[in-house]
Amino acid sequence: MAVLRPAGDFDRSYKQDMAILRRNWQWLVLLAALIVAFTAPLWGTAYIITTANRIAITVIALQGLNVLTGYTGQISLGQAAFMLVGGYISALLVTHLGFSMFVALPVAALGTGVVGLIFGLPSLRVKGFYLAMATLAAQFIIPWLTRHTFTGYLGGSSGRISVPVPQIGDFAFNNPTRFLYISLVVLIITTVLTVNVTRTRLGRAFVAIRDNDLAAELLGVNLFRYKLRAFFIAALLAGVAGALRAHSQRGIGTEFGYGLAESIIFLGMLVIGGLGNNLGPFLGAAAVILLEDLASLVGLGLADIFPGQAPSLLTSFRPIFFGLALMLFLIFEPRGLAHRWQLFKAAWRLRPFSR
Description:
The protein has a two-stranded antiparallel sheet with strand order 1-4. 72% of the residues lie in helices and 3% in strands. It is an all-alpha fold. The protein has helices at 14-18, 24-38, 40-43, 46-71, 79-96, 101-120, 129-148, 151-154, 176-197, 201-211, 213-218, 223-249, 260-273, 280-305, 310-332, 336-349, and strands at residues 160-162, 167-168, 171-172, 251-253. The chain has a single domain (43-349), classed as ABC transporter involved in vitamin B12 uptake, BtuC, CATH 1.10.3470. The chain is globular, with a radius of gyration of 22 Å.
């Protein structure tokens, strides 16, 4: 005799209602994804490993920016500069004080968070375009300081210093294949932290500030305190990403890509992935990085056809592809890939009555 079960999700406790993974198959999919990720060094090509490292580190930086911009509504154009701070702090601790990279990483994150608090102070008085201009100051001040102050430690006019290879005992993470394990573990930790932050009272306060800061203040939300917390979290995660990038590239400096263009690309990645959605940083980082690689291949192919224009063709297609993709998403899918994924899941659940 068939046992009739009720359709839909019926939660019998608050814990069930708050669960992110609600079905056994979802746990299996997560486990399979982790197995694929952690076994990638065994079967992946050099391109796959390098790209996976880039995506993982970029996602961590975007998770911080998503908390600040996506959930709190505070525009920042200084995320790349905060990554530079994290990279320098970790590099100096490892090089001059003999810290292990795994000890220097959280210290660099906290130090970068404090720097983020300083540049977040104007958020009480200004917002929108004016706040973007205030955070833009970090993008000019921090690289200038790395080139013109403490030249014996920060590299002087070049602003570049070398970073030792991280080790655990005799095991050295001296190539992208080995470093991928570090990137994945840190990414899992930051993902768990950011997902849970957005589900707490702190995250609800962030959303209230984003939607209507005046109404949030009338409801008892301390705007200055919570805005500073958002800046701290964003800078902290940027510091983690910057430290990881410094150790993976075995060097830190302004020429490694920490300029204003990188901060703008981060915002574009969030728009493409989906602002205010925990899946947005993953989809945005993967989409833009793969799109940039595709643009490089197109430029390389055209350079072979038109060798006289090779220098311009090799460098021009990446900004063209990124700008075109950003424009199309702003017009046709302003809520990003994450929103499109949610619509797809909703239609799948309602099949065959999805229309």
